[in-house]
TrEMBL record:
Main subcellular location of this protein, as a coarse class: membrane
InterPro entries assigned: ASMase/PPN1_MPP, Calcineurin-like_PHP, EndopolyPtase_N1, Metallo-depent_PP-like
Species in which this protein is naturally found: Aspergillus mulundensis
EC number: 3.6.1.10
Bilayer topology: Single-pass type II membrane protein
Keyword Transmembrane helix attributed: yes
Name this protein carries in UniProt: Endopolyphosphatase
Start and end residues of each stretch annotated as Disordered: 460-512, 595-630
Amino acid sequence: MIPPRLLAILYGVGLFAHASAVPVAEPEQQVLGTLNREEDQIESSRRLSGRFLHITDFHLDTHYKEGTSAERVCHRDTGTAGFLGAEGTDCDSPQALIDETFRWIERNLKGEIDFVLWTGDSARHDNDEKIPRTAGEIIELNKVLAAKFIDVFEDSSAARGLSIPVIPTIGNNDIMPHNIFREAPNRWTRRFTEVWSKFIPEAQRHTFEEGGWFSAELVPNKLAAISLNTMYFYESNSAVDGCAASSEPGFEHMEWLRVQLEILRERKMKAILIGHVPPARSGDKRSWDESCWQKYTLFMNRFRDVVVGSVYGHMNVDHFMLQDSRDVDIVAATEDSPSDPSFSVQSRSDYLSSLREDWAEMPSPPDDKASNFFSSDEWDMEALGKKERRFLEKIGGPFAERYSVSLVSPSVVPNYFPTLRVVEYNTTGLDGVKLWADTAYSEGSFESLDWDAVKRDSSEDVAEADEADDGEDVEEQGKKKKKKKNKDKKKKKKPNFKIPDHPSKSELPGPAYSNKPFTWLGLAQYYANLTEIYEKRASSKTQEGSHTVEDENTAAHVDLYHVEYDTRDDNLYSMRDLTVRSYFRLAKRIAKKDSSDESALASDPDSSDDEDEEAPNTKRSKKKMKRPRTNQVWRTFLDRAFVGFLGDDELDDIQI
Ligand SMILES: *[C@@H]1O[C@H](CO)[C@@H](O)[C@H](O)[C@H]1NC(C)=O
Ligand SMILES: *[C@@H]1O[C@H](CO)[C@@H](O)[C@H](O)[C@H]1NC(C)=O
């Protein structure tokens, strides 16, 4: 609940004083900007398509030169760097890859998606001593990318000049020195406010400049995006120190996030969270400061009626992570964690293996039948056996509400192959809703909330909350886990922020948990097989013999991206939707150990293993002959993590 006094401020006139500075397309829309939303649905030719694009880690490098050496980060010497990028290397992306990617988006996705989530790292790495980056270059590269999005989605008939919202966030390579981001306002938040002026809602620009975070409506009054500034959570950012101390920007960021989610809950809206660095926490990998991870996991759990899902980039490997709300122990979360190591294929696969181990330790469905345990929507708890009931209780009920999920998309930069993803979501009951393109800025909207004003008024409430006994059960949860260590010391401590309430029990779980409007139904991962493109190009060259430069340029307009996999018709992952329990089920199937793990070469005669499903294509059938009892779900997960780039032998080496 938002304190009534805070609500009064939020909806009061004072807060919207600056609204008049915003251009409004049609005069009558100013009048419509009220809290009474149901009537203001207008006729429009546009409709929701039920899809969005998640794209990340472009890493544009204008120093990239075709034919140079990957050892020299594709800047010099002679090598095999291709014109669209050097797949499977640490080279960044040439302009041609960016151009072709946007050409593909324009041809294939324009008009077919409702918004874009763009999760940072648009600038090249600082990996060439001979050409150090400058702040000007970083901003320039980001401007190039912003202009590309504007170019594709510009629409003069739309209220804000773009046909759909594009939501950016700051990456650790979009700043200088990389990873280091001081308390805002700073030169980066100031510059990005300008660079992203078309994407950050006018009324959020002040908030963004003050913190590097902002919120925006995606479907007015229904769905919002919350763009997190993960630089304040990032373990490698030595300029800040986590989210526990109230003097830290990470603390304020989490307060802001909590208030956004409370307001959205109050308004019966849903939210998608986006950020650059994901909350990875497995093996010796800790991407976020532990105190930030704790709050994030707490909020994801408490606001599970509001948060639809969250998407990240940065790691360049396709995977997902589950946050376990039972790991939340706010008061104890102060210890230091190891920082982000350099992320080679080796450390990436170690990390994926450690994720798998974590997943193996999650509660297992009775008889290990994770693949069919969640086949039904409804359980008659009474009719279930004792084991089944116990299992469901352990995971937070039939919707696995104990957990939350964060998705990581691999990158455009071809560490493996360039890639992007399109997520499909449920639009049931959303026919005729007012769309973003038809909505000029209006003062009743969610995004018109100025954090500074909210903060001023809510500080009293936060202080009051410190007194409340609300924090107790979090402490209780943590204590169970930590086995009474430092019990007396901890008991006296209280969280220094307001612990949000759980969702109301009378409602069904939110769209992240049960299939309803805005639930993510599936995702299609697209990739560009650069090796294949180069081979085709080489063979057509030798066939045709002579070739003009012009021909070559036309040949460059290849149909770049193709579906790598689509969870909607993938009978190996066989995910009914992308709800938390679907990911829980997938995680348990990935984690399932094959008996060949115990006795290296022996093939397991127990054919009742329901996880050993048919390989989806001939390529994998061959693999199967070589390793008869491999867990195909794990193998496929690994294959996809590296965008299909690794060969059988490399995958065999990883699989332990
Ligand atoms: C969307 O959610 C509704 C429930 O609100 C459900 O009946 C419907 O089957 C879902 N649509 C899809 C395509 O899953
Ligand atoms: C990419 O193309 C190469 C060359 O045609 C092929 O050998 C490889 O299997 C392809 N990889 C994927 C993941 O499509």
